[in-house]
């Protein structure tokens, strides 16, 4: 049983949210941008050898920090005879054991942080396994991540993004801060917003950039709106699977550029699609390795499982974490966009379906993912360790399968939350189960339509 009560946990998160609204963060962020901005902005344009040198130094620091401060790593690394200060070469690092999601779930709360109050700043991920994990995030990681957003949009817009621009996020919950020194503003709409309202909002506010899920963007496209008429130039999609063909089609329909972001809550930005359509690894956000199903490291050019180390966060360090997606690192390392980091291919996110109501309306998968997040955010249901799957077998019926996590679930509230999305005429059945009906490892999908 968790050693942090439901209420203590919820209070901590609330405290963290209001803490991050203090003006001091804005000042500190602006200062960081002034001091380290140019290094950060050009980091990926350095020769790859320099990037690798920096990474090894950072990894060595992170491993020692985790070994010294985080019980999970203390135990894990002691078992393989790790001695502080021994990451001097890449081979030293590659000897460390992998980290599995189950360990993060089991280790919550005390084993995965230095101090349980570190959960004041935290994030929840359901990742590609659909199972929720809560990790603590350090303030420095939030700052660096915020500044890397500036670099992301600068890179993906081909250098057009500037301080006066606004990015509209149509997403699960807003980012911790919504500007840097009054500039680089971020606006936010939840994906549970009706698409007509979203389109109206875009027409009124004219954001130059939008970041959202591909299934939500499809909904926007289905209204027939041409986003270019309202000042939008680029849409970044993420979190769900989308392929180049689908993005090209959306780009044509909406008359804007559509590029992909490959990211996860545990690892932050993994790779970004540049205007030349290469996926460049964000080499200073996380360090990526590719391994086969037995954990053997694969050379460049071979497709395998993504293993990542978060280079930003120290509150819950994520070191050699099995992310689970399948990709390959190509041997091609140079791109005319100027990025010298490694390039990956075959990025596949979560494959999900839309759900069809009995009135014929299609509801994007992202809305159901967001409802699951809202069990925590809106309905105060701690979701740590919880696993879910929405399945539609016929129009008018929706089954939700849930494996309970660390905390007891409030099923009526969960059921009620689903009715904020689907009409009351839909028969919603919530099943508490020990195993999800359609779960085949990396093929897991959180929203499935079978009929
Ligand atoms: Zn490029």
Give a brief rundown of this model.
This protein has about 450 residues and is α/β, with parallel strands linked by helices.
Can you tell me about this structure?
- It is a single chain.
- With 451 residues, the protein is of the alpha/beta class.
- It has 2 domains: 1-350, ANL, N-terminal domain (Rossmann fold), CATH 3.40.50.12780; 355-449, GMP Synthetase, Chain A, domain 3 (2-Layer Sandwich).
- It contains 12 helices and 19 strands.
- The protein has helices at 6-19, 23-42, 48-69, 71-79, 90-94, 101-107, 139-156, 195-205, 214-222, 244-254, 365-377, 411-418, and strands spanning 122-125, 133-136, 166-171, 185-190, 209-212, 234-237, 257-264, 268-273, 279-281, 286-291, 304-310, 321-329, 343-345, 355-356, 362-363, 387-394, 397-403, 427-432, 447-449.
- The strands form 4 sheets. Strands 4-3-5-6-7-8-9-13-12-11-10 form an 11-stranded mixed beta sheet. The chain has a 4-stranded mixed beta sheet with strand order 18-17-16-19, with helices on one face.
- Helix 9 packs parallel to helix 10.
- It is globular.
- It binds zinc ion.
- Residues 274, 276, 278, 280, 335, 337, 339 line the site of zinc ion.
């Amino acid at each position: 049983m968790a050693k942090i009560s439901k209420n203590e946990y919820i209070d901590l998160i609330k405290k963290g949210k209001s803490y991050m609204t203090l003006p001091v963060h804005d000042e500190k962020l602006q200062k960081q941008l002034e001091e380290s901005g140019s290094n950060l902005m050009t980091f990926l344009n350095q020769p790859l050898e320099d990037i690798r040198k920096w990474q090894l130094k950072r990894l060595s620091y992170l491993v020692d920090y985790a070994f010294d401060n985080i019980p999970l790593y203390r135990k894990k690394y002691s078992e393989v005879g790790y001695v502080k200060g021994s990451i001097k070469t890449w081979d030293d690092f590659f000897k460390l054991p992998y980290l599995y999601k189950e360990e993060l779930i089991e280790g919550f709360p005390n084993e995965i942080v230095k101090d349980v109050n570190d959960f004041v700043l935290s994030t929840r991920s359901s990742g590609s396994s659909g199972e929720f994990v809560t990790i603590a995030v350090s303030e420095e990681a939030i700052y660096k991540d915020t500044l890397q957003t500036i670099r992301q949009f600068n890179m993906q817009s081909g250098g057009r993004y500037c301080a006066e621009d606004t990015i509209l996020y149509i997403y699960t919950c807003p980012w911790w801060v919504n500007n840097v020194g009054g500039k680089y503003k971020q606006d936010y709409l939840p994906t549970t917003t009706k698409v007509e309202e979203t389109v109206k909002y875009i027409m009124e506010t004219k954001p130059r950039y939008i970041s959202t899920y591909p299934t939500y963007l499809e909904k926007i496209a289905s209204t027939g709106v041409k986003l270019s008429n309202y000042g939008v130039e680029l849409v970044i999609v993420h979190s769900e699977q989308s392929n180049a063909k689908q993005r090209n089609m959306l780009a044509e329909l909406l008359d804007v550029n559509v590029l992909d972001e490959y990211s996860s809550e545990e690892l932050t930005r993994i790779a970004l699609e540049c205007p030349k359509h290469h996926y460049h690894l964000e080499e200073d956000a996380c360090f990526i390795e590719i391994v086969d199903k037995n954990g053997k490291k694969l050379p460049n050019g071979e497709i395998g499982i993504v293993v990542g180390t978060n280079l930003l966060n120290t509150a819950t360090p994520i070191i050699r974490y099995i992310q689970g997606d399948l990709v390959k690192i190509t041997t091609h390392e140079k791109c005319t966009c100027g990025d010298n980091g490694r390039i990956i291919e075959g990025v596949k996110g979560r494959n999900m379906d839309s759900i069809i109501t009995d009135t014929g309306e299609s509801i994007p998968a992202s809305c159901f993912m967001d409802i699951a997040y809202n069990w925590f955010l809106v309905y105060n249901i701690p979701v740590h360790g919880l696993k879910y799957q929405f399945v539609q077998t016929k129009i008018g019926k929706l089954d939700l399968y849930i494996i309970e996590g660390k905390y007891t679930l409030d099923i009526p509230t969960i059921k009620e939350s689903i009715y904020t999305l689907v009409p009351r005429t839909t028969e919603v059945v919530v099943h508490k189960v020990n195993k999800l009906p359609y779960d085949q490892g990396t093929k897991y999908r959180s929203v499935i339509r079978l009929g």
